[in-house]
Amino acid sequence: MEQHKNNAQDKNFSKIIIVGGGFSGLGAAIKLKEAGLEDFILLEKAAEMGGVWRENTYPGCACDVPSALYSYSFEQNPSWSRVFAPQAEIKKYLFDVVDKYKVMPHVHLNCEALNAKWSDTDNCWIIQTNQGELRSQFTILACGPMHEPVLPDIKGMSEFKGEIFHSSQWRHDIDLTGKRVAVIGTGASALQFVPQIQPIVQQLSIFQRTAQWVLPKSDMPLLAPVRTMFKFLPLTQQVLRGSVYGIFETINGGYQSPAAMKQFQKIALWNMNYHIKNKQLREKLTPPFIIGCKRILQSNNWYPALAQNNVDVIASGLAEVRGNTLIAVNGESVDVDIIILGTGFEIAEPPIANRVYNRFGDKISDVWQGSPEGYMGTMVENCPNGFLMFGPNVAVSSSAFIIMEAQLTYIIDALKQAIEQDIQTIEPNPEITKAFNEKVQAALQSTVWNQGGCQSYFIDRNGRNSTAWPWTTFKLREKMKKFNLMEYLIDFKPSAKQKDNV
To answer: What single string gives the DSSP state of each residue in 394-444?
Structure first.
C-alpha cells in the first residue's frame, strides 16, 4: 500500500507508459483515452510522431496494402488520392489523427527509451530514457517491427570510396543523375525505389540474392467523385474496406496450403512473362520457391525497369567491396559510385528485446536466444504488466491495422480489469504459454512459410517460425476480443487482499 502511495506521488511515475509514436503507439493512446485511462505518457525517440512512415522517405515509397484497409477502422480517411496511398499521405493521416484525438499532451518527443526493467521490489517498470528515469505500473511496447534497418556485414564495405546509405535513411542531398548505382537487395523497398531512380542513373546494378514473386499492383488514382462519395456516404468506404479485407483473408487462408499457393503463383508468373521477354533475365528472375513463402510483393513497374538497357541484374549476393569495385558471390564484379542498401529490417528478432529486462535482470533477447516466444504475441514470461505490440507469432498477410486493433482490444481490456479489480501484476502462465506455442508451431508446419522452400524473415536463426500467425485474422480477433485473466498469473494489491479478508 505504501509503495502504491509513493508511486502515485512520484512526478516521474505514470500508470501506463507507451513506447513508440507510430500507428500502434498512437492507437494505444487513443484507446486508453477512450477507456478513460488518462494517466499515461507516450515516449517517442524522434522530434515528431510517425514511426515507419516518418523514417522511410525514399522515392516511390507507398503502402502495399490498399489504403481502405490501411487505416484505423474507427477513423477512415475519405481523402486518399490513390488505391495504395503514398508515404506523405499516410504520414499526414497519422498527424491528422494525432490532432483530432488530442494525443500530443501525453507525448514526450525526443525521448528515447534506452532500457526498461521490471522491478519486483517496486512492482513497476523502470525505464531509463535520454531524459532521465521514468516509472510505470504498466508498459505498452509499441516499437514496431520495421524501424531498425539491417546493415549487412560485407568485407571492405567500410572502405567503399563512394556514398552508401540504407533505403530507410535516404540521402535526398545526393543527386543520382548520371551515376553508377548498385542496389543490394530486392525486397519491398527496392521494388518501389528502383523504378523511380532507373530513368536517371547511368547504370543500375542490382544484387539479387533471391528472386521474388511479384504480383501486378491494382493501383489507380481515386478521382474526386469517388473521394466525395466516401466523404458523404462513409458506408461506401466501409463496404470497400470489407471487400479488401475479404480478399486478404482469402489469400491468408491459402497460406495454409502450399498446393493452393502454387495455383495463385500462376498470376505472378504471367506478370513476369508479360514484361520480361529476355529468356536469360527471366531465368534470373524466376524464384525457386512457392509464392507466399516470402512476403508477397506487388508492382507494375518493377519488371519494366529491370528490362531497360541501363539495368543489370546480378543473380547473387554481394561478397566483397574493393575500393569502388563490388564483387558478387558468383564472381561477377561491377564498378559503382553509390551503394543503396535495400536490405530491409530486423523482423524475426525484435530490436526492442535488446532493451527490455525481465524480473531476474535478464535481457529478453538473451532469454529468447534468437527464437522469440510469448503468449498471444502480446505478453512475455517474467515480464509482468508488459505488453508487446506485434510480438512473436502474430504477423499475418493483411493490414497491420488488423493485428494492431485486435491487440489493443485485448490490452485495453486487460488494463481495465486490472485497474477495476486492484490487480498489482499480470503475467503469462508458463504452462499455458508452452501449450499455446506448441499448438502454434504445430499449425505452422504445413504452411507455405515453413514448406515453401525459401529462407525468409519469418524463420528465425534457429530455423523456427517465430513470426507468423498460422490461422485467419478472424480467429486472431476472436481470441483477442476478451482478456481472460484465468489464463494468466495475477497478484492483487495489498489493499484488495485486505478487502477480501474482511
So the answer is: -B-SS-HHHHHHHHHHHHHHHHHHHHHTTEEEEEE-HHHHHHHHHHHHHHH
Short-list 138, 120, 119, CA closest to 42: 138
CA–centroid distance for 152 within its chain: 20
Q: What is the mean pLDDT of residues 232-243?
A: 96
Q: With bands split at pLDDT 50, 70 and 90, how would you rate the model's confidence at 393?
A: very high
Look at residue 220 and tell me if it is in a domain: no
Same domain? For 299 and 379 the reply is: no
pLDDT of amino acid 501: 52
Is 239 among the domain residues?
A: no
CATH of the domain at 201: 3.50.50.60
Q: Give the whole-angstrom CA distance, residue 55 versus residue 209.
A: 25
The C-alpha cell of 365 is what? 533477447
Rounded distance, CA 200 to CA 203, Å? 9
Concatenate the DSSP letters of all residues of 211-262 into one string: ---EE-----B--HHHHHHHHH-HHHHHHHHHHHHHHHHHHHHHTT-HHHHH
The pLDDT, as a whole number, for residue 497 is 62
Dist. CA 137–CA 382, nearest whole Å: 15
Tell me the C-alpha distance between 114 and 129, whole Å.
5
Residue 38 maps to a domain: yes
Q: First vs last Cα of the chain: how many Å apart?
A: 16
Predicted confidence (pLDDT) at residue 502 exceeds the cutoff of 50: no
The pLDDT of 336-356, averaged and rounded, is: 90
CA distance 53 to 92: 9
Structural domain span for residue 181: 157-213+256-341
**Residue 151: pLDDT band with limits 50, 70, 90:** confident
**Positive or negative torsion for Cα 270, 274, 280, 285:** negative
Is residue 131 located within the same domain as residue 167? Answer: no
Domain finish residue from 312, 341, 370:
341
Handedness of CA 154, 158, 164, 165 (dihedral sign): positive
Instruction: Report the chain's mean pLDDT, rounded to a whole number.
Output: 94
pLDDT at 149: 87
pLDDT digits (tens, 9 = 90+) for 152-162: 999 999 999 99
Neighbours of 183 (CB within 10 A): 27
- How far apart CA 13 and CA 41 sit, in angstroms, is 10
Across-strand partners of 352? Answer: none
How many percent of the chain have pLDDT more than 90? 90
* Tens of pLDDT, residues 41-74: 999 999 999 999 999 999 999 999 999 999 999 9
CB 165 within 8 A of CB 159: no
